[in-house]
Amino acid sequence: MKLAVAYLRRSTDRQDQSIEDQKRECLRFAQLHGYRIIAFYIDDAVSGTSIEGRTEFLRMMADAESPKREFEAIIVYSFSRFSRSDIYETFGYLGSLKGYGVRLESCTEDLSQGPAGIVMEFFNGFKAHTESRDLSRDTLRGLISHASDGWWNGGVPPYGYDLEYVSNRCEALQRLRFNPDGTKKLTDLSTNQSRALMRGERLSVTKNDRCRLVLSSEDRWRLIIRIFDVYVNQGRGLKAIAEVLNSEGIPSPRGKSWTTGTIRSIITNPVYTGKLVWNRRTSGKFHVVRGGLAVERERADFGKLHLSGEEDWIVAERAHPAIIEFAVFLRAQQLLSERGKKHGVAAFRSGRAKTSPYLLSGLIHCTRCGHKYHGMYTPKGKANKNGERLKTLYYACNSYVNGKRAECPNSKFRQGPLETDILKRIGHQVDAMLKEGGRDRLQASIARDLVSERRDPGPERQRLRERIKTIDIRVDTLLESLTPENKRFVDPRLVALGDERDGLEARLRELETVNQEEVDCDALADEIMASVSCFEDLFREGTIEEQKEFIRLFVERIELDPDKKTGKVYMKKFPVPT
Questions:
Q1: For 2-140, which CATH class?
Q2: Predicted local distance difference test score (pLDDT) of residue 565
Q3: I want to staple 433 with a disulfide (CB 3.0 to 4.6 A). Which of 157, 193, 322, 438 is the partner?
Q4: CATH 3.30.70, applies to 161-275+317-342
Q5: pTM score, two decimals?
């Protein structure tokens, strides 16, 4: 009997064939065609539009390549279970299987291995990929329409609100309340009977049902009013409000202690004014919303977090009952900005760096020539209907970016893997900081190091100005001595001096904007710890500027070796518990 394995995949779409159904069909197919299945590779709740996240698929392909492989075929329920990804990526894996001598069998389609099978594979792969794109576009159009009409598009509602499900005849059917312990309370509005949904249990609704925000229990929405009143009218800070709520034993939205980050998320959320704002961010595979329309994404951006400009937000005024007057909300934002400046919390970047997608620009140094790495991209393929071409994003040595590739060849590193590695390292340090005692040690460090530097920036400013002046003199001298014969020796030195001068000027601008008032170490520590505790939220929802500022809180320097394709990260030594 021939040996085979089966690959089973279910995406996040609830209409997908279940894993058990696929398994049953694969076993039936194997019995009919003389196979014995010796292993199952299962990717549950994973999209097929990309290989990313499909760990079992990659393990299966590695096993297929192994000289110790025992199976001669892979059985899938349908070709779309194997892949819905880019047609060229799909053909790459199909070609690999052919090279290994492994057949791909489908329970529902004829995938013969002759010329007709090749055509069928192309057709099925293209069909599956096109269906995914069409589904993405149509789904996004539906979400745009829902949000424009003030309907909730999914997720946990803001504290102070519950979800109310409505039929296509606008009849209120049931209400869902999220509890701090992760459970949910479901109330049938026709019978007024309630039942509990356990953590992870999903609510079954029809495709025609819609969802809107309604006021939660009185104690919850009155607490929102109280938080804004204390912050705006009584002058209490985020930390003071959190301490009061914790001392009163009031559970926070997530069942943990109230923190400055939790209070900040409430203070800054426009939903409490009755306004529904959607599409502030998206990580859709194929499309984004621009100008109220679903627009195709560039292939290099598939699945990446996209922060939308305010002009692309979908805003529905008076979508649900307001808890806070708009004037009060605006005053809270003004106070938040003023108090942040007073505590010495300043933005890290300005100008183009605010929107540049390269989070590590300026931190990376080349070990070969000493120049810094900057973001660059290479266009691929033909332009789409919007006149845009696909892009692959890299970090590259400044010599390489400026066309001097002979001086520093092969000096490119892919953006995605590099940034992912850095964020993982930061995550480990965040975990350490959040341990007991981390906050107090951080405050002591600020008082010892940061504050002293801020109080008297004069000497450092003077040193920077003198070094800039020296660099300018050196540059003038080099330019005067420049000849066609020595150009290839002088140019790298000019670039290095230019990089150094840019860094010195950036630091000088920071020091010249330092507020000479007394820095509140306690408040600054709270601001940093609030950012640390919201680490994941920041990299889902925060601006590019905020993300860069946070990374530089932890990373001192990154060195990349283009010869060995390795790197070294110098992390700042924050005071964490030992």
A1: alpha beta
A2: 85
A3: 438
A4: no
A5: 0.46
